[in-house]
């Protein structure tokens, strides 16, 4: 376990509790996506792990180093890409990244800097000033800075906010490459598709509390529901009495019946439903099934406030 968080709490002056006893273990080489609405505690959690904010209680260890008692060693293992783009506008890209490496006491290594810039499609822009770059390219520079001292753990705090879809997918590819190199990645995002696309595990945080952390596929299997739409030849104004036991909804202007079922159940009930649809005299035109997305699961969890 490369990151170990035990009973982490953060209370600000005035009594606001931003983190409420968070416990979390992160394995080396995995990608963990932290999902949560604004004010959920995502950034506070990252800031505390990175030593930017001191915890009110609890402990955090990175690579076995306490982030408070052994700050330098812990911080040297961490790369952080913040939400805000805060770069010196007149500096050249290559100088920004090289300087960041030096801040962590790493010896000069032009070949490593070149490798990082090429990986992030920044090599052709290495002599451009930051002010000349697009917003997406500036975010790439932030990632290059974070990688310059070869960290073992990389935190990406809303890394693709304001980035177009094409560039976002390019950055997902970069994340996959880093994972292949053994880098542990913790990603906070509002884009649910990022978690679905690249995460190994998903954590849901809300109101400073970690609601759950689970393997992505297992989470979707455990909490996901499927819906079956039975398209009809007829147009209905209400669900027939003979189908009342199925808790069906009228959809498609009365020409469809929506049936929701739990994928974890011993049986779906679909065979019985289709038989009863025929028995009440309805004619089926088509069938459609849909799996709940991670976004729908996330919204449900946050609204419930519990796992």
UniProtKB/TrEMBL annotation:
GO MF annotation, one: ATP hydrolysis activity
Keyword Hydrolase among record annotations: yes
Keyword terms: ATP-binding, Hydrolase, Nucleotide-binding, Transport
One Pfam short name: ABC_tran
Primary enzyme class: hydrolase
CDD domains xref list: ABC_DR_subfamily_A
Domain of life according to the entry: Bacteria
Residues in ABC transporter domain copies: 3-232
Residue ranges the record marks as coiled coil: none
InterPro entries: AAA+_ATPase, ABC_transporter-like_ATP-bd, ABC_transporter-like_CS, ABC_transporter_ATP-binding, P-loop_NTPase
Family annotation (PROSITE patterns): ABC_TRANSPORTER_1, ABC_TRANSPORTER_2
EC number: 3.6.3.-
SUPFAM superfamilies the UniProt entry points to: P-loop containing nucleoside triphosphate hydrolases
Protein name per the record: Doxorubicin resistance ATP-binding protein DrrA
């Amino acid at each position: 376990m490369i990151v170990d968080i035990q009973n982490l709490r953060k209370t600000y002056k005035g009594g606001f509790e931003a983190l409420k006893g968070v416990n979390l273990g992160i394995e080396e080489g995995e990608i963990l996506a932290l999902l949560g609405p604004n004010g959920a505690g995502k950034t506070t959690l990252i800031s505390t792990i990175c030593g930017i904010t001191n915890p009110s209680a609890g402990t955090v260890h990175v690579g076995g180093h306490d982030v408070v008692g052994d700050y330098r060693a812990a911080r040297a293992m961490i790369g952080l890409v913040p939400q805000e783009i805060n770069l010196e506008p007149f500096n050249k890209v290559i100088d920004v990244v090289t300087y960041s490496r030096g801040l962590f006491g790493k010896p000069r290594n032009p070949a490593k800097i070149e490798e990082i810039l090429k990986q992030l499609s920044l090599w052709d822009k290495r002599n451009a000033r930051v002010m000349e770059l697009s917003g997406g390219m500036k975010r790439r520079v932030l990632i290059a800075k974070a990688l310059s001292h070869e960290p073992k753990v990389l935190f990406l705090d809303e890394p693709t906010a304001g980035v177009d879809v094409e560039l976002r997918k390019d950055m997902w590819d970069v994340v996959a490459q880093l994972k292949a190199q053994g880098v542990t990645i913790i990603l906070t995002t509002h884009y649910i598709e990022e978690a679905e696309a690249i995460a190994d595990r998903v954590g849901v945080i809300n109101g400073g509390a970690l609601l759950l952390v689970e393997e992505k596929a297992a989470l979707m299997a455990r909490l996901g529901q499927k819906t079956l739409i039975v398209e009809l030849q007829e147009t209905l104004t209400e669900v027939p009495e003979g189908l009342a036991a199925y808790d069906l909804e009228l959809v498609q202007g009365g020409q469809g019946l929506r049936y929701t079922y739990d994928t974890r159940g011993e049986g779906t009930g679909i065979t019985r439903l289709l038989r009863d649809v025929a028995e009440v005299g309805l004619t089926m035109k088509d069938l459609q099934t849909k799996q709940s997305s991670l976004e729908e699961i996330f919204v449900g969890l946050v609204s419930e406030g519990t796992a």
